[in-house]
């Protein structure tokens, strides 16, 4: 499917802030959490049906919509001025108004063809840049691609540098842009800057290099699994225990995915070694510190305001080969509780301690004696509210970065179900996607429902 669809770039333009950035704001300090963030782009796609199908009386033609997007983006960049700049060194964004990249593309198919069975490789073609591009740390920090389909539908692809912010920052940016596009200044949630004052940057010029991540488009494969609301509810009921009497949707889904990944790795190892081997594993869940700090940090605080909750699993030899799903949920909950305690002390945040913890975490991820499974939840971000003036998106899709053993969870449009984008090695994915327990609760890449 991916090779059959033609995506033709019509034009590339640079959009600069509609008002120049004041001189006293020209140097934006990165925090220590920005400095140690991966040098990748955070990608997302927002799909919109044909504007002629919208209920709004103010329906714009395609060309008008593109012009409207560029003009409102220029206004938005005046508020998000660092995203129009360039990183200088490893601690500062020079807010020089170089601008964001705006790409227009024509797609030789209809949205319904994309929605039939979304292909992770094909979706990458709707982005303005490869998510793994090192330009995220040296070049344009924000890129947008507007994909125009033959049916009149549209997909807006966002790529924002992870060195500038996290998924919450991307959500704040989109909220700000949509409010500007609808001329609703009263609903404009302006970004808050100043994370560097809470999480002081460090000088890395004479020290060991910053962490990097291994990416490989050839080795890793991504699949989409959809948990409908009723299945999620059934799964939550199944994993309820005295330790976790009210498991969340994310805890239940991520525990099942962790269990099935362990089993896939075990079967893969047994194929290699000739004996069944359940390897020790570590499960890491990224946590939005804004919601856990005491006092709470603003939701619109820009930057990588992230911590990692980690928990280990080691299969006891005297136990059966059955992995206790309720036990995995309890481990995830325990890790989150420990992380909450660390986040609560954000007012006395120690950047050197954060750097040491990052080195420990990176060494843990490089440990070949155990499996590493990383999960990130975007379920609470209101991406489905992104209305530029022609209605809300009919589908919001993550686009996988080619990093092994990563899962990203997103809300379905109904806000109750979950879409899980899982990246594994090709061998492990073949075992994972055929797991009967997984398929009892999740469907493998079903049609996107409008």
Automatic annotation (TrEMBL):
InterPro entries: CAT-like_dom_sf. Gene3D superfamilies: Chloramphenicol acetyltransferase-like domain. Keywords: Acyltransferase, Transferase. It comes from the Eukaryota. Belongs to the plant acyltransferase family. This is Vinorine synthase-like. It comes from Prunus mume. The gene is LOC103325761.
